[in-house]
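Hi V.,

You were right to ask for the full record rather than a summary. Here it is.
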Amino acid sequence: MTAQSETFSDRPLRFSIPALNARGRVVRLDAVLNDVLSAHAYPPVIEKTLAEALVLTALLGTTLKDREGQLTIQAQTQNGPISLLACDYIDGAVRGYVQFDLARLAEVPANPNLFALFGKGYLAVTFDRPLPEAQGGGRYQGIVPLEGDSLSEAAMQYFDQSEQLPTFIRIAIDHVDGRCVAGGLMVQHLAEGEVGRERLHVRLDHPDWEHVRMLSSTIRPEELADPALPLEEIVWRLFHEEQEVRIEAGHGMSKGCRCDPDHIRDVIARFPATERAEMVDEKGDIVVNCEFCSRRFPISLVSLSN
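Predicted structure:
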């Protein structure tokens, strides 16, 4: 990968347009995305779905104000080729995986919508904020049906229904020099005078929001997924005619699997000895599988008694 693509990818860009009471995020995943995907030999349609989910996770996760906060996205169903999709974000690190039925996946049409992939399911978005409750901390979860053509559309329904926050999201996925590149744009409208603070109320039909939404919709997929195009350039192309646009570059992002042999050992050691004995395989190990990074961690039962 070139230095240029590293510069313009795997980091978020925050921006706000004070006069229009709007804020937004742009993110592009390149090396981080391929690091996550390389742990699994996913079929193309699953790879594309997970790529979209990871960009969505990055867009939503960067709205967290506390570095220890966590954003989790989970799409689940009981009657679709995909039974579970899970992604999370914490302090610039993203991870995700998909559980699916290969035989049922072979029956889906080209360019499937959410119903073809998930059947009748739901999208759960969970924010964990390690702050005092008086400062907006705690856990908050919103759940919406998996409806529409993409996860982006379902996420916009989440903001409309659970947050009452007008939101525009667009995500694009492409393959560049043999690797998957995915980019996303999220723009939101806040109550007047509330940029950078908690909103009081919003109007879905506010003329300022309609103006911002129309400008945002002109973004082209090839711009979002172009690793050679600076994120700042995307914001400039969309909003350069506005009176003031503030931008703030975020920190670099990384693959976020947090599986650790020592941590796994400590967790298993907390189980009663009788339960640990039931977990042992024929080799005398307790094997823990990490779905996110597709790694196996054999922990010797004998070592736990030392």
